Amino acid sequence: MTNSDINRLKDKAFQVFGIFCTFIGLVVLAIFLFDIILEGVQRIDWDFITSLPSRRAARAGILTAWVGTIWILVLTTIIAFPLGVSAGVYLEEYSRKNRLNNFLEINIANLAGVPSIIYGLLGLEIFVRQMRLGGSLLAGALTLSLLILPIIIVTTREAIKAVPRSVRDGSFALGASKWQTIWNQVLPASFGGILTGIILALSRAVGEAAPLIVIGALAYVPFTPASPLDEFTVLPIQIFNWTSRPQAAFQTNAAAAIIVLLIITFLLNGIAVYLRNRQQKKIKW
Amino acid sequence: MWLSAVITILITIGIIWVLLSESISFFRVVSLVDFVTEKEWTPLFADKKFGIAPLVAGTLLTTAVAIAVALPIGLTIAVYLNEYAHARMKQVVKPLLEVLATIPTVVYGFFALTVVTPFLQTLIPDLAGFNALSAGIVMGIMIIPMISSLSEDAISAVPRALREAAYGMGSTRLQTSFGVMVPAASSGIVVSVILAISRAVGETMIVAIAAGQQPRLTLNPLVPIETITTYIVQVSLGDVPQGSLEYKTIFAAGITLFVFTFALNNLSFWIKKKYQEKYD
Q1: Which of B20, B91, B110, B150 to mutate to test the interface with A (most CBs of A within 10 A)?
Q2: What tens digit of pLDDT does each residue of A64-76 get?
């Protein structure tokens, strides 16, 4: 065999290895989803969705968990949406290249890399102790809002950046002020992109357990929360609690709750991808 | 609006202030020297020892396993998608791989404990029910898309001319990839790995579920260990009174974690800025 034959052989070998690596992740994902569905799907019925938690696995349900998750989603959106979008608009449209703004950018990139459990410690000290909110929905939503704020800011900026100069120049030429241009032209044009970013950020928030455990969300809440100041649990915490128990029946419950959580996560991601594709097709600048 | 941007700075100040103020009152009682040099971590026992080393060792162990899984696979995927795969395949595979990154980590924890550990136990009979190995492997699978997509971006940013010159000299795809493209994109690849390490160090739920709660100064991935993040979760789940020394330990552990991830993230920014090859 000549040298070039050997090189060609190596090349082919790497191709096979490349296909193997590319699919191993997907195969593991498939095995995993299959395993969860196999174990959990027969446990999902109307009773499971509408029952309160219980010490007996067969009677336990996820009512408080999914109601808590929905509460957290709504509250987090209300808090993080205006903050994140206005910070994104400011950084993209108003800020000048100076040291403060440079620092702001590095800082946001840094915040995006802070582990979620550290946000939990922040929430525990500021919201739970100093503001005396306790382990309430509001404290949880505030904590998660801070966690997803950097994601919303970054995606908002990207969406705004995609709006071409000509749109702004046209608006200015018609005598619009800077704010009128942003409100009437830039924001409507970039809304799809902003929305995609927010939904992706929320899908991250839905799966978070660690920061909420740290601020003191409980695994066992015997009632559904009725106000933002009530104690709560969420699906990931319920799953964590069931997974940590040795009995097989609770593992089955965990698998069933995981199916519900994955449906919510994939639904949110699906909506985001759909919106992004529609946006890309609809607008041709 | 300026205010909403400034809030992000307040968050950083808040994090640092909270971690520092609670840790300082912790270090009034426990000396920093003991914290760093002591080899045992038993704040919840009667005989209290406050050496962070076992928690750091546990964290580094799971991280090392995760990177050992994710780096070869992620980098191979990046090279394969760039140099070998058809454009159509790339279009289909990339979003599918991203799905791995969207799955909640508590779900990965369940997977590690109920599928991966029993499977590995059939291969390695001495493997404990909780161990760093399966938590690390599953964490590695989770961060594959992080390494593959960031590295792929870096490789595809290498100018066409370099690649074509390599092919023009008769290189195979493999030689072009590892002789030209990967070295030219090395700063981007290093950045992706550093960010992946930072992510793995801060990962909580997988290790809390599957790696155990026994702080142990070991490099053996087959026995139960405890990571910094797991310790914080463990204390949060228990009935530790607020303001007590045990309560303050989670902030001391938290600041250790924060220092690690903060250093890693800033190292990645610095490399990106300093070593990124500029092509025109």
Answers
A1: B110
A2: 889 999 999 999 9
C-beta atoms of B106 and A236 within 8 A: yes
* Contact A236/B at CB under 8 A: yes
Instruction: Tell me which of 3.30.1490.20, 1.10.3720.10, 2.40.50.100, 2.40.40.20 is the CATH number of domain A47-282.
Output: 1.10.3720.10
Task: Report, at the CATH architecture level, how domain B18-275 is classified.
Answer: Orthogonal Bundle (1.10)
Residue A102 in contact with partner chain B when CB distance is under 8 A: no
The region that residue B257 occupies, defined by phi over 0 for left and psi between -120 and 50 for alpha, beta otherwise, is alpha
Mean pLDDT of B120-140: 92
pTM for the model: 0.90
Q: Nearest 5 degrees, angle CA A149-CA A150-CA A153? A: 85
The string of pLDDT tens digits covering residues A181-210 is 999 999 988 888 899 889 989 999 999 999
Please state the domain extents for chain B. 18-275
Interface test with B, best of A121, A131, A264, A276 (most B CBs within 10 A): A121
